[in-house]
Amino acid sequence: MKKKLGLLYGGKSAEHKVSMQTAMAVIKALDTNKFDIYPIYISEKGEWIKGPQLTGPVENVDQLAFSKREEIQSTALSSSLFETTENNNFDVIFPLLHGPNGEDGTVQGLLELLNLPYVGNGVLASSAGMDKVIMKNIFEVAGLKQVKYNSFIRKDWQNNKEKAYQKVEQELGFPCFVKPANLGSSVGISKCTNQEELEAAFVEAFQFDRKVIIEEGVTAREIEVAVLGNDEPQVSVAGEIVAKKDFYDYKAKYEDGNTALIIPAEVSEAEYNLIKEEAIKAFKALDCSGLVRADFFLTKEGNVFINEVNTMPGFTPFSMFPLLWKESGLEYSALIEKLVDLALERHAEKQMIKYTM
User: Fold this and answer.
1) Can you give the three-state secondary structure of the chain, one letter per residue?
2) What is the mean pLDDT of the chain?
């Protein structure tokens, strides 16, 4: 019997367009002999609009951006969004959302309340993985090796900007990187080599979040692995990002192609085994499920520092996560099916939990 798969995409975030591209790629890869596909579009204004079941090919992303006049049911945020026209629940939901209001635990919480199976990480892992400060604090407790970092909320920075800049310079030095704490896809990130650049970077990052994180700059290679599974996660081969610019920012990632992905990365067996071990440790520290991309710094001395994990990594066929699994022997369409199976497995386990005595 075919599975009824609800695709949730778009979103009220700076990564709306990225999500649309992801949805387009997944739809093209899905086997319609195995899945009935139901699109649920979230506009940039935050409107939830369920479109009709997809029965044919989708040629461009504009066909997935439904308007209110095209909706087949109310846009009210309710369980009816996740039902077929025959009022049957979808078998599983695949949230293809990036950034705030998507991969930060908010949508995951809604799906938990509706008791619906969904692909990917749960509320805790999603929210902790989205907030880089919380994530790094958890990694520190778990014993994962990291570069030094500071963080500030907007109000503290506004009350004493000079104190903030001095703290960064004294504890981290230059170069350093300033990032919004709760945003992915390298949006709002700046590299700073002096105080003037640091001041501008704070202003830039605070446009996207009320909290920023500042990380010590290190001379290192950027190595990534993909993690797949629930309680017994598997790790892909390693890949390397080589930015043709100073660092891997949003434009390098999505717009101008100024980056190269090397898969598999040229790392020693010992380096790979250490990265693999640390990736699994990070996955379990956040109580992750489904999928994670784990990003590391590898110095020429062989030191491995975890940078971050992404609980909903880029997911087009040309993104690092699917490419790593392709090199590991798992093609894009099979990867999607595996993630659906993992979602159903996790949901079935949750149904065994007793909530009353």
Assistant:
1) CCEEEEEEEECCCCCHHHHHHHHHHHHHHCCCCCEEEEEEEECCCCCEEECCCECCCCCCHHHHCCCHHHCCCCCCCCHHHHECCCCCECCEEEEECCCCCCCCCHHHHHHHHCCCCECCCCHHHHHHHHCHHHHHHHHHHHCCCCCCEEEEEHHHHHHCHHHHHHHHHHHCCCCEEEEECCCCCCCCCEEECCHHHHHHHHHHHCCCCCEEEEEECCCCEEEEEEEEECCCCEEEEEEEEEECCCCCCHHHHHCCCCEEEECCCCCCHHHHHHHHHHHHHHHHHCCCCEEEEEEEEECCCCCEEEEEEECCCCCCCCCHHHHHHHHCCCCHHHHHHHHHHHHHHHHHHHCCCCCCC
2) 91
